[in-house]
């Protein structure tokens, strides 16, 4: 899917840029890389713990904020739409620590434009044949694996009751789910990749893939292995085009396919 000439161009360009940056700052501490790495570790930690509604409620109780704890408990555990509220809360935490927080660091600390971290629309459509090719591969695979017990036990995240309409809760969840994928792509293929490429060059792709693979731990093994491959391919595309939008489209398309296949297997769609 990626020809040798294109690979060589992206590889040499990123490595040459990294070498120039290293030569110009060889005697200085790369504060930017240090901050990116620390922010990534902090954000991953916060999403892991604060994304758990039960953990949030326990913290509020430990701080003697009983009123807030009771309100959160009612909304996230005892409300008729508690499941949806929990998912939206989790996605909101992810969006904050994967998008809002890093974006503030880029704008206020690095004094840089967000377009330099993958949000530019220019060149966003580059590589669309690869997008179509990945979908052509992924859709049949998703349909095949959607019949497994582990897959059906996990997807869709919003569990639709047998007598429940898909509208509005499932549709609302899918919209929030897609926004979460935008934040995820910005964090991994934007903030991490473009925030470290001046130091690691082409190898920033593989630095990014490590935490990206790890956030898939606990999901079905085929999905976790696929995340390694997808992380490398999407990282390459982002490095080439300086845009994350193709990755956002791929993620949303595959995620929607997974959810619809799961609903179909369960006889709900």
Write the layout of secondary structure elements.
Layout: H1 4-24, H2 31-50, H3 53-62, H4 66-78, H5 82-109, H6 128-145, H7 149-154, H8 169-200, H9 204-214, H10 221-241, H11 245-265
Helix pairs in contact: 1-8, 2-5, 2-8, 3-4, 4-5, 5-8, 6-11, 8-9, 8-10, 8-11, 9-10
Structure report:
The protein is mostly helical and 269 residues long. The chain has one domain. It has helices spanning 4-24, 31-50, 53-62, 66-78, 82-109, 128-145, 149-154, 169-200, 204-214, 221-241, 245-265. Helix 4 packs across helix 5 (82-109). It is globular. The model has no long low-confidence stretch (mean pLDDT 94).
Q: Give, in order, the helices and strands.
A: HHHHHHHHHHH
The fraction of residues in strands falls at under 5%
Tell me the structural class: mainly alpha
Question: What is the assembly state of the chains in this entry?
Answer: single chain
C-alpha termini separation = 33 Å
Biggest sheet details: none
Helix content: over 70%
Number of helices: 11
Q: How much is the average pLDDT?
A: 94
Radius of gyration: 20 Å
Tally of DSSP β-strands:
0
- Using the alpha-carbon principal axes, give the shape: globular
Low-confidence stretches: none
Number of domains: 1
């Amino acid at each position: 899917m990626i020809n040798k000439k294109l690979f060589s161009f992206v590889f040499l360009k990123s490595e040459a840029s990294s070498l120039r940056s290293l030569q110009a700052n060889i005697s200085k501490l790369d504060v930017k890389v240090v901050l990116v790495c620390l922010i990534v570790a902090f954000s991953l930690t916060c999403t892991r713990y604060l994304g758990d509604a039960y953990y949030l409620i326990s913290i509020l109780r430990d701080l003697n904020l009983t009123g807030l704890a009771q309100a959160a408990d009612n909304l996230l555990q005892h409300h008729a739409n508690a499941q949806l509220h929990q998912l939206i809360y989790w996605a909101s935490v992810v969006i904050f620590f994967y998008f809002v927080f890093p974006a503030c660091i880029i704008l206020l600390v690095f004094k840089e434009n967000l377009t330099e971290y993958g949000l530019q629309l220019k060149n966003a459509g580059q590589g669309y044949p690869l997008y179509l090719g990945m979908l052509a591969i992924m859709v049949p695979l998703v349909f095949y694996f959607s019949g497994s017990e582990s897959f059906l036990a996990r997807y869709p995240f919003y569990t639709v009751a047998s007598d429940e309409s898909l509208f509005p809760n499932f549709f609302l969840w899918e919209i929030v789910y897609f926004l979460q994928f935008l934040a995820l792509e910005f964090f991994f293929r934007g903030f991490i990749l473009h925030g470290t490429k001046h130091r690691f060059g082409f190898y920033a792709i593989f630095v990014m893939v490590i935490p990206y693979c790890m956030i898939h731990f606990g999901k079905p093994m085929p999905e976790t292995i696929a995340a390694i491959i997808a992380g490398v391919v999407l990282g390459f595309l982002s490095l080439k085009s300086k845009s994350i939008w193709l990755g956002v489209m791929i993620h949303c398309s595959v995620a929607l396919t997974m959810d619809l296949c799961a609903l179909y297997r369960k006889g709900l769609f």
